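Appendix B. Chain record.
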Amino acid sequence: MTSILRPALVLFVLLSALTGLLYPLAVTGAAQALFPAQAAGSLVVRDGKPVGSTLIGQNFSDPKHFWGRPSATAPMPYNAGASSGSNQGPLNPALTEVVKSRIEALRAADPGNTQAVPVDLVTASASGLDPHISPAAARYQAARVARVRGMPAERLEQLIADHTETPLWGVLGEPRVNVLALNLAMDAG
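Structure tokens predicted for this chain:
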């Protein structure tokens, strides 16, 4: 029996060390060497303090800021520890109600805006943490933000254009605007 058990235990210990220690250390080391900003969480630092990450949405609710996609994490929005989708399908009455309430909130924040509300402003992303909105969603909010800040609309349109990211290699994904980067650019002047 020991002739069978001993090689199995030795193999178990070796594979545990290889896959549980050596491989994770090698991958972590390579990631930190090749992609230091991403490996550190893609943190955005202002005045020596982290103010957010370019990878996780922030809960902006002040009318002077652009608002991101709704978060599906509960009870605290944009909680990376609770990342998940809402799991509500398009025929779910609960989704219909929450979308209606989000549209009403957007209309209440900017009653003069009669444009169609972009879908990404009223629906959560799959992870519930999306830091981006579409350029259309940014333009939808531009009049409100310009009015509240007393900022020329043309300047705001230029900031949106400057912070619009293009699809990867020109074909993968859609144009998008990182809400944190745009809001920080506005706050900087």
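Further analysis of this model is presented in Appendix C.
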